[in-house]
Amino acid sequence: LSLRLALCHCSIECEPWSQWQHLNRAKYPKLTAGIHQEQAESAALVEQFIRVADICLGNGGDCSFEWPRYCTGWALPSIQSWILERNLHSATFNGCTVGVEADGQPAKKPWRFLNSSLRLAKNLAVLECAHSSHAPLQGRSTRMSAFYPRKLCNTMIQSLFPHVVNQHVCSMPCVAKSNQSHRQKLVPAWVPFSSP
């Protein structure tokens, strides 16, 4: 597999690695085999992404990977060794800083992004929550929080492709202020139209 990639981003479903799975295994032992199967499938997807991301990095591109901050999948040996081998940068922030909401109120949604781009990691890490309270993510809100808000997308694009974004920014020349007298009007005075 040989590709010329500029960017490779991945967000695999986090449900098999949710903190709730500890409770599910303890309360419903029959679910343990199914949970282990889902985790094995998820781990295989992570390994496939790492293969593609390594090709992207080898071609001078960037890669990023996202999961919730407290997802137990972060402890996978494949991810841990990849972080060290590729010297990846980690950024953690709350989704409320980029517009994640539940029932019209800010929702915390703690995220963690691994990045090969230091610029992206820095721009994500400076997002600080200023909310005193958060709405819980539950039901429909949980599903909707899987979609990236526009502010997060813009931050990622501006961080990874500043040369593209900045070429469309309007600019004005800066010149020193000079004292000039008012120049004469070049257009003759308006003559009112007279009726016959």
List the helices and strands and how they pair.
Layout (H helix, E strand, L loop, with lengths): L6 E4 L9 H8 L4 H27 L3 E7 L8 H10 L2 E6 L6 E2 L2 E2 L3 E6 L2 H8 L14 H5 L5 H11 L1 H5 L30
Parallel strand pairs: 1-2
Antiparallel strand pairs: 2-6, 3-6, 4-5
What does this structure look like?
- The structure is a single chain.
- The protein has 196 residues and is of the alpha+beta class.
- The chain is 38% helix and 14% strand.
- It contains seven helices and six strands.
- The strands form two sheets. Strands 1-2-6-3 form a four-stranded mixed β-sheet, sandwiched between helices.
- Helix 4 packs antiparallel against helix 6.
- It is elongated.
- The mean pLDDT is 85.
Give the tally of β-strands: 6
Poorly predicted regions are none
Strands of the biggest beta sheet: in what spatial order? 1-2-6-3
Strand content: 5-15%
Question: Looking at the structure, what is the overall shape?
Answer: elongated
Q: Count every helix, treating DSSP H or I runs of 4 or more residues as helices.
A: 7
- Helix coverage percent: 25-40%
Nearest-angstrom radius of gyration?
26 Å
Q: Ends: how far apart?
A: 85 Å
In round numbers, the mean pLDDT is 85
